[in-house]
Each structure stands twice: as structure tokens, then as C-alpha cells.
């Protein structure tokens, strides 16, 4: 009995899977603070499925990248449950969860999370098993697309922030660019759980967020130190 939780970006995705069967799954994209809604949503989901905490045998969580706050909330809930119930915890890339929407696509799959100021959390995957072509990163999105263009292959883009970058994608890739249908742009917790089958469980206290970028304070400190060294 596996519980999957993804709060890494604006959508909230949770699911319960038993013996490779989805019992119940819920995805919201209501721009509501996850700190207020995530745990009550998990409790309600388990109540609907008539599953008690003690029935759970594994927790799977999206580790980031994404919203700093969102990633922390999901990790905190997952770690607390795994530690208190003494069950395994597995973490999976949030971008890979999005990319799972395009597993049947004949080409490359590019998940996109907007990170403002022309940047994005993104990566490039390939094939049924979502092999990494370009690893998860926080990048200037135009520069990233220039790199993607060198492959000369069709690319399926997915993610709730897709429309923010659509014109740039079309400009950079032209006919090579394909866009997931709206219903295939949200993260699905059942995909998260399926992907976890290929990941190893981690010691709870060693499971940490994968932000893929430094904080603004760290960036400012780095600039200050660079100025002093010149």
C-alpha cells in the first residue's frame, strides 16, 4: 500500500496504489497554499479509500525541483509519515514525474516549470523508461532550448507553465516542438509511484530537497564575495 505525494509546484497530486492498482488519485491545480491543504487532502484521500496509516507500506514523494515552499511541505509530510510509521521512503525527481506524461511519445520529452525572469526548471528525457538526456537543472530557458535544438529531434513539452514559454519554444524549435494536451500537463501521483519502482529507498533523515538552484540570499552573498576578491 503506497502513498504518493507531490507538492513541488502549484498543483497538488496524491494517490494510493495497492499491488500495482490505483485505488484513488487526486490532482488539484487551484493555486491554494499547500501548507493549508496538503495534509488534510492526504487524510481525506485515505478516509475515502478506508485506509488507515498503519496500512501503508511505503511513502513516495516528489523531491523537487520546484517551489521552495512546496518541495519542503511535501518532504516534511512524507518524512514525518515514513519515520513515525517506520516504513520506506522513496523520492523521485519532480521533473521526471511531469515527463511521465509523455512516455509514449516518439521523440524527446521536456518537462517545464517556470522559474521567472526567463528561467525554468527543466530537463530532457527519452524513451519508455525516461532515460536522462539532459539532467534536471535551473537554466536560462532560451539557452536550454538552443541546446535541445542541436539534437534535431521532435520534442514533447509538458507542464502547467507551458503557455508562458510557448512562443519562445515555437520560435526556437519550429516544427520539432510538440505540446502535451492540457490534461497531460499536470503531475500525477500514480506516475510518481510507478517511477519509484526504479529508485532505492533512502534513510528518512538523509532525504533532502533537490532545489537545483541556490537561494537569492546565497546568490547575493556569492556576488559580494566575488566583488571583494577583485
Describe the protein's architecture and organization.
By secondary structure, the protein is α/β, with parallel strands linked by helices. It is built from 7 helices and 10 strands. It has a 5-stranded mixed sheet, with helices on both faces. A 5-stranded mixed sheet has the order 8-7-6-9-10. A hairpin with a 4-residue loop joins strand 7 (119-126) and strand 8 (131-140).
Low-pLDDT stretches are 217-223
Q: What's the helical proportion of residues?
A: 25-40%
Structural class: alpha/beta
How many DSSP-defined strands? Answer: 10
Strand order of the largest sheet: 3-2-1-4-5
Largest sheet data:
5 strands, mixed
Q: Shape from CA axes? A: elongated
Order of helices and strands: EEEHEHEHEEEHEHEHH
State which percent range the strand residues make up. 25-35%
User: What is the number of helices?
Assistant: 7
What is the gyration radius calculated from CA atoms?
Answer: 18 Å
> What distance separates the N and C termini?
57 Å
Q: What's the overall average pLDDT, rounded? A: 92
Please give a handful of descriptors for the protein shown:
alpha/beta; 230 residues; 5-stranded mixed beta sheet
In short:
Helices cover 36% and strands 27% of the residues.
Q: Mind sketching the topology for me?
A:
Elements: E1 2-6, E2 12-18, E3 21-28, H1 34-48, E4 58-62, H2 68-85, E5 89-92, H3 94-99, E6 108-114, E7 119-126, E8 131-140, H4 141-149, E9 155-158, H5 162-173, E10 177-179, H6 189-196, H7 216-229
Parallel strand pairs: 1-4, 4-5, 6-9, 9-10
Antiparallel strand pairs: 1-2, 2-3, 6-7, 7-8
Helix pairs in contact: 1-2, 4-5
